[in-house]
Design a protein that fits this description.
The complex is a heterodimer of chains A (about 110) and B (about 110). Chain A has no helices and eleven strands. Chain A has about 110 residues and is mostly beta strands. The N and C termini of chain A lie far apart (about 40 Å). Chain B is globular, with a radius of gyration of 13 Å. Chain B is mainly beta and about 110 residues long. In chain B, the strands form two sheets. In chain B, strands 2, 4, 5, 6, 9, 10 and 11 form a seven-stranded mixed sheet that branches. In chain B, strands 1-3-8-7 form a four-stranded antiparallel sheet, with no helix packed on it. The mean pLDDT of chain B is about 95. Chain B starts with a strand and ends with a strand. The chains are: A mainly beta (about 110), B mainly beta (about 110). Chains A and B meet through strand 4, strand 5 and strand 10 of A and strand 5 of B.
């Protein structure tokens, strides 16, 4: 099955700086790569996703890049704010068949005031 | 829509007891997923259903775990007998259109097995 590695496990940045979280996946057939944000004590929520037919996608301060050749994708958050503090999970899936969505172990992003 | 509804929110039980977790997906959604979250292992997919039919249960850790979806609006995850290592947050999620679609998570059930 799919294996998703996520780094770093903890990331501390100054408010206003950028944050980058990286993930690699093992199954070259995977074609869907979402990112979920989980605030303390809350449920995970989708913040952005990318499909394999595009290399980059942006939504305001958030962007995701995908390199299919290297089998890695990254989340970029610019101009970080206190409300960005949370655990971020990357995930991968090839859809269909018997494979669900496989998550990375998460990155705890801490925004320092 | 109230979103995905899970019950109970918290469950404390003793080792060896049966535990049943419940989930009501968003009306109209055709996929339902059960995930387990721990600090060590993150979010693990246990099983998922499409139109009430189990599609992949390869993530179910042992025969002590079972899941059912008797109709489109209800699913259960049962652990019998429970063990301390089962302590985790169990999330149910639903989606419209499958694993390539946005997952809507419930609030989770915090399970503590003593």
């Amino acid at each position: 099955g799919e294996n998703v590695e996520q780094h770093p496990s903890t990331l501390s940045v100054q408010e206003g700086d950028s944050a980058v979280i990286k993930c690699t996946y093992s199954d070259s057939a995977s074609n869907y790569f979402p990112w979920y944000k989980q605030e303390l004590g809350k449920r995970p929520q989708l913040i952005i996703d990318i499909r394999s037919n595009v290399g980059e996608k942006k939504d305001q301060r958030i962007a995701v890049t995908l390199n299919k050749t290297a089998k890695h994708f990254s989340l970029h958050i610019t101009e970080t704010q206190p409300e960005d503090s949370a655990v971020y999970f990357c995930a991968a899936s090839k859809g269909g068949g018997a494979d669900g969505l496989t998550f990375g172990k998460g990155t705890h992003l801490i925004i320092q005031p | 829509d109230a979103g995905v509804i899970q019950s109970p929110r918290h469950e404390v039980t003793e080792m060896g007891q049966e535990v049943t977790l419940r989930c009501k997906p968003i009306s109209g959604h055709d996929y339902l997923f059960w995930y387990r979250q721990t600090m060590m292992r993150g979010l693990e997919l246990l099983i998922y259903f499409n139109n009430n039919v189990p599609i992949d249960d390869s993530g179910m850790p042992e025969d002590r775990f079972s899941a059912k979806m008797p109709n489109a609006s209800f699913s259960t995850l049962k652990i019998q007998p429970s063990e301390p290592r089962d302590s985790a947050v169990y999330f149910c999620a639903s989606s419209l259109g499958g694993v390539l679609s946005k997952l809507f998570f419930g609030s989770g059930t915090q399970l503590s097995v003593l």
